[in-house]
Amino acid sequence: MQDAVEIAVEIVREFLDASMKPDPVLAATYMAEDVKITFTGGRAMPSAHEITAFNKSRYSWVKKQLGQFDACDKSDHVVVYSNGTLYGEWLDGRSFSGNRYLDRFEVRDGKITRMDVWNDSAEWILEPAINRD
After folding, report:
1. How many CB atoms lie under 10 A from the CB of residue 116?
2. Which end of the chain is more exposed for a tag (fewer CB within 10 A), N or C?
3. Which DSSP helix (H) or strand (E) runs through 123?
4. Tens-binned pLDDT, residue by residue, of the chain (133 aa)
């Protein structure tokens, strides 16, 4: 039988897989109704649908090369960290890879209740030479 930490990591992994398709309808099924989502720069996102819309405003397409998952049980929820890199294509057609990301999730009662997102995209947009792809 899986413990709470293993279940939470699986929920996050399945959410990320759905997000990368992108399938915001499926991704939303892993999130609580009152989920709190904050992206880099403090951008609040009300739902998985807005994440997809935001990504379309920044990238032609984007995927995650999943790296490591770390998790810890906080008794009433599990915190899951996912790190890795983003790869894809900017709106101007330039490809990119190696764009670091770190996502932090809180999982309660089988649903993601909080998601915080950080990545290098804003820096790479401001300073294209940083992206050496």
Report:
1. 16
2. N
3. helix 121-126
4. 579 999 999 999 999 999 999 899 999 999 999 999 999 889 999 888 888 889 999 999 999 999 999 999 998 999 999 999 999 999 999 999 999 999 999 999 999 999 999 999 888 877 777 765 5
Q: Are the CB atoms for 78 and 5 separated by under 8 Å?
A: yes
* Tokens (6 digits) for 28: 């939303």
Could you write out the DSSP letters of every residue in 2-70?
--HHHHHHHHHHHHHHHHHTT-HHHHHTTEEEEEEEEEGGGEEESSHHHHHHHHHHHEEEEEEEEEEEE
Which has the closest alpha carbon to 84: 62, 99, 105?
A: 99
DSSP 8-state symbol, 130 = G
What's the angle, vertex CA 72, arms to CA 104 and CA 3, rounded to 5? 115
